[in-house]
């Protein structure tokens, strides 16, 4: 599905529909299913594959310049989120899932100035 690549920013992924999406990250393979959210830290080599080809997912790459301008200490972040079974804070996970779904709905419609504002309101880091 996706050959090996990396990004300057942090990547946030959410598998809406599908099962057994194999995600290779720095040489280790993870298996994700519907409802899984996972993060890829900056400049980490990753790829995805699997038998199923009709996955439905959202993927957001957080621009590094933007993130650093808002949170200078984020340069030292090493985020660890690899699916719903790998998190202890289920409430925060559900809140993040809800935000991703809402962002996806907004981003799949024609982008107007009002919709841009709504997208930005979901990206506040408070």
Description of the structure:
InterPro entries: AraC-bd, HTH-like, RmlC-like_jellyroll. GO terms for molecular function: DNA binding. Keywords: DNA-binding. The chain is 28% helix and 29% strand. It contains 3 helices and 7 strands; from the N terminus they run βββββββααα. The radius of gyration is 15 Å and the shape is globular. It has a domain at 2-87: Jelly Rolls, CATH 2.60.120.10. The chain has helices at 64-70, 90-107, 113-122; strands at 2-5, 10-17, 21-25, 28-32, 37-40, 46-49, 56-62. The termini are far apart. The strands form 2 sheets. The chain has a 4-stranded antiparallel beta sheet with strand order 1-6-3-4, with no helix packed on it.
Question: What is the CATH architecture descriptor of the domain at 2-87?
Answer: Sandwich
| Portion in beta strands | 25-35%
Q: Report low-confidence residues grouped into runs of 5 or more.
A: none
Look up the CATH topology of the domain at 2-87. Answer: Jelly Rolls
| Structural class estimated from helices and strands | alpha+beta
Distance between the termini: 34 Å
Helix content: 25-40%
- The strands making up the biggest β-sheet line up spatially as 1-6-3-4
Mean pLDDT: 89
* Helix run count: 3
Major sheet, described briefly?
4 strands, antiparallel
CATH top-level class of the domain at 2-87: Mainly Beta
| Shape estimate | globular
C-alpha-based Rg, rounded: 15 Å
Strand segment count: 7
Order of helices and strands: EEEEEEEHHH
Looking at CATH, the homologous superfamily of the domain at 2-87 is Jelly Rolls
GO molecular function, one term: DNA binding
Keywords: DNA-binding
GO biological process, one term: regulation of DNA-templated transcription
Protein name: AraC family ligand binding domain-containing protein
């Amino acid at each position: 599905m996706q050959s090996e690549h990396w990004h300057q920013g942090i990547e946030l992924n959410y598998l809406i529909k599908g099962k057994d999406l194999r995600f290779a990250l720095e040489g280790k393979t993870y298996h994700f299913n519907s409802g899984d959210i996972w993060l890829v830290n900056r400049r980490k080599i990753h790829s995805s594959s699997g038998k199923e080809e009709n996955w439905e997912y959202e993927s957001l790459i957080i621009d590094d310049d933007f993130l650093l301008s808002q949170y200078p200490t984020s340069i030292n972040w090493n985020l660890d989120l690899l699916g719903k079974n790998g998190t202890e804070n289920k409430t925060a996970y559900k809140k993040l899932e809800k935000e991703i779904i809402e962002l996806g709905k907004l981003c799949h419609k024609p982008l107007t100035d009002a919709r841009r504002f709504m997208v930005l309101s979901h990206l506040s880091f408070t």
